[in-house]
Design brief:
By secondary structure, the protein is α/β, with parallel strands linked by helices. It folds into 2 domains: 113 residues, Aspartate Aminotransferase, domain 1 (Alpha-Beta Complex), CATH 3.90.1150; 225 residues, Type I PLP-dependent aspartate aminotransferase-like (Major domain) (Aspartate Aminotransferase, domain 2, 3-Layer(aba) Sandwich), CATH 3.40.640. Helix content is 38%, strand content 14%. The chain is built from 14 helices and 12 strands. The structure holds 4'-deoxy-4'-aminopyridoxal-5'-phosphate.
Length: 358
């Protein structure tokens, strides 16, 4: 046997398609339709090639300092990863015993389940936050902390959740984390599109087990750069440092992410545009008889009006060069997840939807 049994068995995570043809309307991987801050272009244009000859700063000191400064915490509370996906993977190493478990909401970001399989530990799903309409067995929710205190070793709480867009109030997250025996990572990949976030919980005095994780891939329009970060108790952050590769964030990524982070106004303006488009687009779908879960993220998770099914529409749109996301699992297969793009892209999508109902 050349390959580890757990890997032989492994069903790999399948990311959304990245079609070669750049003319498609791409609303399938929650990328930002607007460009990153012009400061990123300036940094790239002026990047000193000598910095590529040498290894990057293994502790990403400047970026950490900026993140710590904005959030009112120490640099010892900040960790940076090669995308937030890397932080998730490192967390599975740092916070889970070989006989431990990884928990998350279900449905949620499906990579979590794969991470557990790679780590060869059990994954446990907590049924939907409020229970999706049409899904059997409404979830426990997060409030039942006596039941949940030992749910898993690590709990990955996506907030706003993906693919549903649902949001849990920070007070409920705080309550859940307080009663929870393991580490809670609040995956806030989409928090800049939400009405609130949990960062204050991560930096609060007395926090022992809650980490808030963010990414530059969505609100900062830098999915191609691969930078994410997290903030939490120094002890947990130190554990992540212990298990990371020496140079996990390259020099270009550190410099460009820093420039984007410094231009917060640019990111906020784009997030506001996306939120306005989300409002309008959700109403347009509802007007057409779709069931739309109110979203706090840069996507909506919606059930098409009869007689079309999500699966058929997904295929028809794709054939017409419009890519959305379809997850064929029992509690997601009646809906499409549609990334919020520009107004123009969403109009093109609505026209294609209307055409397929004719
Ligand atoms: N968390 C969630 C909930 C996501 O949807 C994604 C993007 N697919 C990530 C984390 C990973 O983002 P990245 O690695 O680009 O930072």
């Amino acid at each position: 046997m050349l390959i580890a049994r757990s890997v032989e068995r492994l069903e790999p995570y399948v990311p959304g398609e990245q079609p070669k043809n750049r003319n498609v309307v791409k609303l399938n991987t929650n990328e930002n339709p607007y460009p990153p801050s012009p400061e990123c272009a300036r940094v790239l244009a002026g990047f000193d090639l000598d910095r590529l000859r040498r290894y990057p700063d293994p502790e990403f000191a400047e970026l950490r300092k900026a993140i710590a400064g904005r959030n009112g915490c120490g640099v010892e509370n900040v960790f940076v990863g090669n995308g937030s996906d890397e932080i998730l993977s490192l967390s599975a190493k740092a916070f889970v015993e070989n006989d431990g478990t990884i928990g998350s909401l279900d449905p949620s970001y499906s990579l979590y389940k794969t991470l557990a399989a790679i780590r060869d530990v059990e994954w446990k799903g907590l049924q939907g936050l409020r229970g999706l309409k049409g899904v059997e067995g409404e979830g426990l929710g997060l409030s039942n902390s006596s039941v949940l205190s030992n749910f898993s070793s690590l709990f990955l709480l996506t907030n706003p959740n993906a693919p549903t867009g649902e949001f849990v109030e920070p007070e409920a997250v705080a309550e859940f984390a307080k009663g929870f025996g393991g580490v809670v990572i609040v995956d806030e990949a989409y928090a800049d599109f939400a009405r609130a976030n949990c960062m204050a919980l991560a930096t609060a005095h007395g926090n022992r087990n809650l980490i808030v994780m963010r990414t530059f891939s969505k609100s900062y329009s830098l999915a191609g750069l691969r930078v994410g970060y997290c903030v939490g108790p120094a002890e947990l952050v130190a554990a992540l440092y212990k298990v990371k590769d020496s140079y996990n964030v390259d020099a270009v990524a550190q410099a460009v992410a820093l420039a984007a982070y410094a231009d917060e106004a640019w990111m906020r303006a784009n997030a506001e545009k996306i939120k306005a488009t989300r409002r309008w687009f959700s109403q347009e779908l509802e007007r057409r008889g779709w069931d739309v879960i109110p979203s706090e993220a840069n996507f909506v998770f919606a059930r098409p009006a009869a007689p079309a099914t999500a699966e058929e529409l997904f295929a028809a749109l794709r054939a017409g060069g419009i890519y959305v996301r379809y997850f064929k699992t029992p509690n997601t297969r009646d809906r499409l997840r549609v990334t919020i793009g520009t107004d123009e892209q969403m109009k093109t999508l609505l026209e294609a939807i209307d055409a397929s109902y004719k």
